[in-house]
Design goal:
It is elongated, with a radius of gyration of 26 Å. It is an all-alpha fold. The chain has 2 domains: 38 residues; 65 residues, no CATH class. The protein contains 3 helices and no strands. Helix content is 57%, strand content 0%. The longest helix is centred in the first third of the chain and has 36 residues.
C-alpha cells in the first residue's frame, strides 16, 4: 500500500517543486512588466491635463461635421463638484478603456 502511495505522490511532489518556482517567476515577470511599462499617473495629482479622451472625442465629432470646436473650461476643486457628476464623468470618460492600448 505504501509503495502505491509513493508512486502517486512522487510525481505530484516533483511537479509542485518544478511548477511552484516557475509560476512564481512568471508572476514576478508580469508584475515587473506592468510596473515598468504602465504610464506614471502621479502627475495627474499635481497638474491638470491639457485634454482628455472625452474632449478629443467631442472635438473629432465636431470636425467631422464641419464645425469648429473651442474648449472653454474653468478648473475647480473636486470637492466643489457633485459626487454624482464625478462618477458620471469617470464612467463616460473612456468606455473602451479595456479594449485599446491607451491611444
Amino acid at each position: 500500500m505504501w509503495f502505491l502511495l509513493r508512486l502517486i505522490l512522487f510525481p505530484l511532489r516533483w511537479a509542485f517543486k518544478v511548477l511552484a518556482p516557475v509560476s512564481l517567476l512568471l508572476v514576478a515577470g508580469v508584475v515587473a512588466y506592468l510596473f515598468f511599462w504602465l504610464p506614471d499617473v502621479s502627475i495627474l495629482g499635481k497638474e491638470n491635463p491639457e485634454t482628455t479622451a472625452f474632449i478629443e472625442l467631442t472635438r473629432d465629432r465636431y470636425q467631422r461635421e464641419g464645425g469648429n470646436h473651442r474648449v472653454r473650461r474653468t478648473w475647480v476643486d473636486l470637492d466643489q463638484i457633485s459626487p454624482a457628476l464625478v462618477e458620471a464623468v469617470l464612467i463616460a470618460e473612456d468606455d473602451r478603456f479595456f479594449l485599446h492600448q491607451g491611444f
